[in-house]
Amino acid sequence: MSSISWFFITTHFVLLGILCLFGLHRLSMVFRWFKYRHYQPTQPKAFSTLPKVTVQIPLYNERLVAKRIVDSIVKLEYPQDKLQIQIVDDSTDETCELIAERVKHYQQQGINIQHVQRIHRYGFKAGALKDAMETATGEFIAIFDADFIPHPDTLLKTIHHFTQEDMAMVQFRWEHLNRRSSLLTKLQAIMLDAHFGLEQRVRCASGMLFNFNGTAGIWRTEAIIDAGHWSADTLTEDLDLSYRAQLEGWKMRYLNDVTCPGELPADMNAFKSQQFRWAKGGVEVMMKMLPTVWKAKIPFTKKLESTFHLSNNLAYFVMLVDTLIFLVPSLYLRDQHDFVNVWWLDIPLLAMSSGGHLAYLFFGQVVLGRSKSRAFLKLPSLMVLGILLAINNSKAGLEGLFGMRSEFVRTPKTGELGNEVDSSQVKVKAEKKQYRAIAPKGALFELAIALVYSTVFLWAVGQGHWFMLPFLLLLAVGFVLSALHSFYSHIQLSKQ
């Protein structure tokens, strides 16, 4: 066999091995959960006198949820003389007027609430939070995005964790207002449940580095400043600050039993936009912080776990490169050189790479006491959704690797409560259209890839590569659906 043949076959298995490592890491979360399933954070000593807390609500053009969050946040149960509320508003539309009216209304009732605005959007969310801290009076900063609704007793239940003097941040578990609105929101909820119920819980319990999720958490003001403050050089300022703070010696805590409900993206374009930002930002933080992590005087296990944590968004790109460039030549060359029996290596690697992710998602429901049967039935849809994200998140990862800068694009929300819409916020459908996410570019590219995978599937049928057919069929179906959705989105937007 020629050297080029060996190159294609070997590279295919190397890339498949990398995907297998990502899958095994996900699977390790399940096994580690069994080890730490009885873990409970140390019961904190109570403050003798409650400290001052500033609640920050960062938002940008969020007309459909702005009134709801302001009306909700003033219901927080905390001594009024110890509580400051900042609506950190970068909006450029009528959201500003709506917030101004609600803030004035509550100020007249004696509530310490301010409407904090800037004349520019420098640094986007990170810049807005940093600027707002110049007028923040709290020793602690509670942050809630505009589409989240904290329970009234959230601050009183959690502030005492900061009696531990080196505690920088506590993160609450996300719940979902519109979990059952559609198949898409149900699948998103399963993905996030696994992240919180397994990942955050396991990393916190085992003393690994983990992250603030950008909302539904409280920071110690001193820790933010000591770690270098909010920075806008990545799209995930929350992940960036979390790593910098922990490497400075600060502690963080995840509270699985304290929940904060928020709203999931209601349509595929909004979901893809959010995933793009998270994936690109994660890779940007990897490029920025991973060298520092490996130089830090922390245990090897923390360094290894952090490497998987920060690089996991590259799995989409690895999968796309392998299946588009190396899979077919590998199958063809093995067929030509009577090397077909290596299928016994393909199957375990494919099973571990995809099976690890599926087990992770499934057990994310189990550990939260949700229906096992419903979770199991959603697994095929979750696999297809992962393929639908492959091109979107691969592009995000590439941009992050090569340092290509882009604007912080907010995820549009509709103000949906469960299966209903708050009619006081959404008067006509035309209002919702203003907040629709822009359809991702590259529909023709997605179609071309769909055609490639469909052709490969038919070729594999003809060549009798039966063990690869389920995998190839899934890829073909996933990319065809992705291309069709992109074309449909562009057609819908052109009609507006």
From TrEMBL:
Q: Which segments cross the bilayer? A: 6-27, 314-333, 345-368, 442-461, 467-488
Q: Which domain of life is it from?
A: Bacteria
Q: Any idea which UniProt keywords this protein has? A: Cell wall biogenesis/degradation, Glycosyltransferase, Golgi apparatus, Membrane, Transferase, Transmembrane, Transmembrane helix
| InterPro entries (UniProt xref) | Nucleotide-diphossugar_trans
Q: What is its main location?
A: Golgi
Know the name of this protein?
Glycosyltransferase
Cite a single GO BP annotation.
Answer: cell wall organization
Q: By its UniProt entry, which Pfam families does this protein fall under?
A: Glyco_tranf_2_3
The entry lists its GO molecular-function terms as: glycosyltransferase activity
Subcellular location(s): the record lists: Golgi apparatus membrane
Which membrane topology describes this protein?
Multi-pass membrane protein
